[in-house]
Amino acid sequence: MLAIMTSEPEQQIGVGTQDAFQRLWTPHRMAYIQGENKPTGPGADGCPFCVIQAKSDEDGLIIARGEKVYAVLNLYPYNGGHLMVVPYRHIADYTELDPGETSELAEFTKQAMTALRSASGAHGFNIGLNQGSVAGAGIAAHLHQHIVPRWGGDTNFLPVIGHTKVLPQLLADTRAMLAEAWPA
């Protein structure tokens, strides 16, 4: 559950300096920043993408399952509906995908775009793979492709200046909506 709390503008900040800013607190992001649930070694032990596979779709926030890949919501989304396509096999690099995995990853990307357009009217998408921790991969040991829906005007002062994103829907509700819109 997303809990956003605001502080009163007259609250003392720092060492007693007052300012006129409202503050939005998103403490759930601290788990991501501190590396909660990130695997520490090179193997699949403790890998959240390997653990998710064994969960029910609802508990794992899985939207759709294929033979070689699955689509899952991002626990720390950049936008509502931010999902990932993940191979079942624990591999780190795109070049390690076999031809069937490559094909199904591409097909699931197309299906994700279709579902997001249908369910939420997405205007565009950011789609990408971060290969290695130096390239921004939060979980570098298990390949995953991000699909981030975008809308005109979805970047405003809050994420740009406040480094905060307000999400209008709970992840379980977003999962149900996208699973229903997923092409058969």
Summarize the structure.
The protein is of the alpha+beta class.
Account of the protein in words:
With 184 residues, this protein is of the alpha+beta class. The chain has a single domain, classed as HIT-like (HIT family, subunit A). It contains six helices and seven strands, in the order ββαααβββαββαα. The strands form two sheets. The chain has a five-stranded antiparallel sheet. The chain is globular, with a radius of gyration of 18 Å. The N terminus is likely disordered.
Name the assembly state: single chain
CATH class: Alpha Beta
* Name given to the CATH architecture: 2-Layer Sandwich
Low-confidence stretches: 1-13
Find the structural class using helix and strand composition: alpha+beta
Q: What is the arithmetic mean of pLDDT?
A: 81
- Give the number of helices: 6
Task: Quickly list its features.
two-stranded antiparallel ribbon, 29% helix, HIT family, subunit A, alpha+beta, 184 residues
Q: What are the SSEs and their pairings?
A:
Layout: E1 5-6, E2 24-25, H1 29-33, H2 48-53, H3 57-60, E3 62-65, E4 69-73, E5 83-87, H4 99-120, E6 124-129, E7 145-150, H5 157-161, H6 171-181
Antiparallel strand pairs: 1-2, 3-4, 4-5, 5-7, 6-7
Helix pairs in contact: 4-6
